């Protein structure tokens, strides 16, 4: 009876969001969890040499402290989003934060590399829980008219968190041992759980059962897709890469066949029948691909070719995330009042122009030459991200917010993986030590910003096409989703 009452209250309150001051506590809970998950994706990178030395381990083994965390997130985002639709976003989020916090305790007390790696994988599973339903819970927390603003603030926290992670780690490691990197998660995680219990909203729940088979196939497909791309970029034995690719494709085909026969599949192919959603997903993948290509290749360009010191390279990269953090909340607020499709398209055009300008840097650029170009990239990406995410989530029925939220995170991670793999492939083919990849006579990877710009322009085309289809889509999407027709292969 209490459960039914809670669901009815959630349904009636959902369109207008939560009342004050509960809305502020719920929003703070979501931002604390998101910040912890994003920071922990980068905070351990700086400590890898120290951790490897403590455990007498090699670089290849210690890198799994980072890879295990990221891979756990990638393979479980969609299954956990489906769990949120069935058992409640609130439960999945709180469970994710609790698991993340417990795993952080395990990281602190790990006495071997194997134990630390396992704890990081569990921590990644907890991070996936809170990330998979973050946007869905936000949709039930804030009023519809303020959803774009909330998404923009989400982007702000992600940008700041990803930027300060390595810096925070460097400051802490200058006077503390590496376990302290994980100690800071514990009080914040406990606070997030306590605040969440009191403030997070309930949501309407799906009557379907959790599809274990689809969850396994989804994990295999996405996990092997990422590892296959990574292996190909790092010149792993070709037979291993081929085997990974074959298993990935097989699992993907089986998952697709299974999903097409379901009304509410774990892999949300039903949402892909909504043109705006599909085009927003594709645009997101391509834009994050372009961003990651730039993030990985530009430090090589600045240090190897232009001769800047590592500390200067770090400072030269800063204008991008700073500009993004400033613009993202503004673009989110604008998307509540103006067409998110037009704002997103404008952002991508500016992003592509910024990348092209970086690619046209002179042979001996000054620091201001680089900084203003990087700031343009950040402005463009910040102007694009929040409106695109808003359009992606709000184009779906409220009951499928969890699946949309899971796809949002998956698109981001897939784009980043593709971008990293593409740059790794270029590096493996032409190398860094010979400077050929950046030289004017062999501009193979000096043109990486131009390649990124071309992908951003491709995203422009997709986004502009989506703008033309948006009105038509919104008239048809509900009838499409409610259609009894099932697809099959």
Automatic annotation (TrEMBL):
Residues 26-489 form the Major facilitator superfamily (MFS) profile domain. InterPro entries: EmrB-like, MFS, MFS_dom, MFS_trans_sf. This is MFS transporter. The chain crosses the membrane at residues 24-48, 60-80, 92-112, 118-138, 150-172, 178-200, 212-230, 236-255, 276-301, 313-330, 342-361. GO terms for molecular function: transmembrane transporter activity. Belongs to the major facilitator superfamily. EmrB family. Gene3D superfamilies: MFS general substrate transporter like domains, Multidrug resistance protein D. It is found in: Cell membrane. Keywords: Cell membrane, Membrane, Transmembrane, Transmembrane helix, Transport. It is a multi-pass membrane protein. The keyword Transferase does not apply.
């Amino acid at each position: 009876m209490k459960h039914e009452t809670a669901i009815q209250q959630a349904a009636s309150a959902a369109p207008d969001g939560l009342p004050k001051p509960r809305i502020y506590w719920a929003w703070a809970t979501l931002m604390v969890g998101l910040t912890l998950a994003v920071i922990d994706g980068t905070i351990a990178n700086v400590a890898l040499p120290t951790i490897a030395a403590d455990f007498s381990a090699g670089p290849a083994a210690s890198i799994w402290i980072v890879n295990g965390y990221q891979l756990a997130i990638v393979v479980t985002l969609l299954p956990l989003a489906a769990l949120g639709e069935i058992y409640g976003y609130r439960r999945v989020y709180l469970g994710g934060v609790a698991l993340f916090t417990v795993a952080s305790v395990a990281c602190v007390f790990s006495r071997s590399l194997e134990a630390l790696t396992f704890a990081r994988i569990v921590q990644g599973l907890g991070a996936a829980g809170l990330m998979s339903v973050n946007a869905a819970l936000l949709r039930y927390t804030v009023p519809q008219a303020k959803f774009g603003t909330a998404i923009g603030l989400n982007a702000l926290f992600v940008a700041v968190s990803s930027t300060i992670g390595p810096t925070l780690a460097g400051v802490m490691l200058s006077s503390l041992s590496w376990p302290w990197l994980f100690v800071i998660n514990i009080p914040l995680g406990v606070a997030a759980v306590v605040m969440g219990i009191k403030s997070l909203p309930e949501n309407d729940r799906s009557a379907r059962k959790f599809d274990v088979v689809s969850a396994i196939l989804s994990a295999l497909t996405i996990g092997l897709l990422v590892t296959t791309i990574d292996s190909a970029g790092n010149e792993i034995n070709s037979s291993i890469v081929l085997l990974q690719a074959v298993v990935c494709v097989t699992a993907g085909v089986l998952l697709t066949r299974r999903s097409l026969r379901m009304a509410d599949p774990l892999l949300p192919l039903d949402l892909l029948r909504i043109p705006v959603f599909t085009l927003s997903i594709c645009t997101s993948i391509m834009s994050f691909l372009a961003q990651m290509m730039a993030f990985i290749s530009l430090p090589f360009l600045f240090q190897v070719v232009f001769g800047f010191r590592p500390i200067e390279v770090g400072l030269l990269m800063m204008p991008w995330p700073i500009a993004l953090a400033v613009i993202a909340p503004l673009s989110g607020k604008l998307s509540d009042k103006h067409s998110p499709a037009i704002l997103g398209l404008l952002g991508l055009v500016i992003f592509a122009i910024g990348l092209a300008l970086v690619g046209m840097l002179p042979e001996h650029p000054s620091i201001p030459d680089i900084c203003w170009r990087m700031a343009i990239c950040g402005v463009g990406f910040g102007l694009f991200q929040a409106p695109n995410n808003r359009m992606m989530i709000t184009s779906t029925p409220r009951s499928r917010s969890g699946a949309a939220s899971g796809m949002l995170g998956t698109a981001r991670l897939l784009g980043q993986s593709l971008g990293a793999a593409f740059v790794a492939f270029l590096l493996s083919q032409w190398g860094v030590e010979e400077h050929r990849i950046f030289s004017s006579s062999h501009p193979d990877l000096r043109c990486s910003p131009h390649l990124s710009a071309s992908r951003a322009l491709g995203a422009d085309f997709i986004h502009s096409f989506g703008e033309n289809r948006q009105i038509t889509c919104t008239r048809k999407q509900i009838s499409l989703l409610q259609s009894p027709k099932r697809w099959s292969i």
